[in-house]
Fold this sequence. Notes:
This protein is α/β, with parallel strands linked by helices.
Amino acid sequence: xxxxxxxxxxxxxxxxxxxxxxxxxxxxxxxxxxxxxxxxxxxxxxxxxxxxxxxxxxxxxxxxxxxxxxxxxxxxxxxxxxxxxxxxxxxxxxxxxxxxxxxxxxxxxxxxxxxxxxxxxxxxxxxxxxxxxxxxxxxxxxxxxxxxxxxxxxxxxxxxxxxxxxxxxxxxxxxxxxxxxxxxxxxxxxxxxxxxxxxxxxxxxxxxxxxxxxxxxxxxxxxxxxxxxxxxxxxxxxxxxxxxxxxxxxxxxxxxxxxxxxxxxxxxxxxxxxxxxxxxxxxxxxxxxxxxxxxxxxxxxxxxxxxxxxxxxxxxxxxxxxxxxxxxxxxxxxxxxxxxxxxxxxxxxxxxxxxxxxxxxxxxxxxxxxxxxxxxxxxxxxxxxxxxxxxxxxxxxxxxxxxxxxxxxxxxxxxxxxxxxxxxxxxxxxxxxxxxxxxxxxxxxxxxxxxxxxxxxxxxxxxxxxxxxxxxxxxxxxxxxxxxxxxxxxxxxxxxxxxxxxxxxxxxxxxxxxxxxxxxxxxxxxxxxxxx
Length: 532
């Protein structure tokens, strides 16, 4: 693209305005043909009914009343934004189970870049969390006391991607000696690969035990209702395009000297940050798509201009000028601020995590969820939507789309649209897009997705029993009928850049490292900025 903010009085470069006009005319003239060849159902998967979420434990998974040992207490302190903290909470429950310990309700990060003073019970339903998991892990609200005073915990930090054996070797000896352990900066501190029962426990925590509080849930559901009053179907877009994120990524979006100067100024905050070839990240698919590119991708896939779109985002670099092409492509543009009244939103405004939770609910409730990034919210929603019926979920294959975007002025709209549809096969939320066991578990909870072979049951949201009571068949390693997409699977196209990377900036942060070398390479505040 040739600039984010330069251009005429409308803030839209002339070439972009002409191209959008071309999109409108071309897509209208070839509408019938495009609909005939469209490779996907825009609002759902035809194969989704063959699969279901299955997170009940096996008969070998003993009740917590049997496994929990006395005088073993685990306290964890989460890190980052709402969704990074969510991954920490999920893994904390599993870690407590591995250690046969009682878990103290996790402490949320109140000191990070996000500056949210909320505690666990102000975001999540704490009583439901404790009661739903009672058979899996014993959970208490406050740290243990001795002589009327809280026992001082022994502070530790475990390595990234610590395996069960790692917990037993590193944490258990200290737990047996000190009895109360406090694990700090608890994010991505548990291995991606666990046995099936522990993976299913992850799913029970993430998809069933973690409920938002009533005020948050009620406003989120109100906004979904208001979107549905406007249209039968709607898209939710999680749009990450903040100045800090772009500055750190080192990506260049064609904004000329103004962009280089502005983002370069932000980069000076991190003296150790090394930026190489600014075009390389874009070529390798490591940069978020621009709002314009997201809009063009969606129109090319077949979504028409009358579709209503809900956008969950923070500060957008370039402001309204950057958003203008997306709004021209999709004029029915909504946010939580435009859908809610001032009275409804005011109680949440000072709390970034609660605001993020509202966006999470609406995105989860959408008919099609789209993301331009690979951050924690995107990953969690991708996995959640797989678990609850493979709802349409579109993640750009950025590496393959980049050369197409760069060459779009030299090809017809029909050719552009056809190539986008071909590229995006394998990135739209269909079953079996990712081989079980590959990718980040929160985005691909394969151990918790089963194929129907008869009458099946999903864990009920009001169920207190987490034992497996149905005869289910786990998804096989082979897609039904073979692959239905011609270029890359998700893992082939994006794995080198994004797998297990909560920052969404794949080449910059090695989340597989078994130590905290990350802290010496990247400022911790920066990691928090990128986390959600």
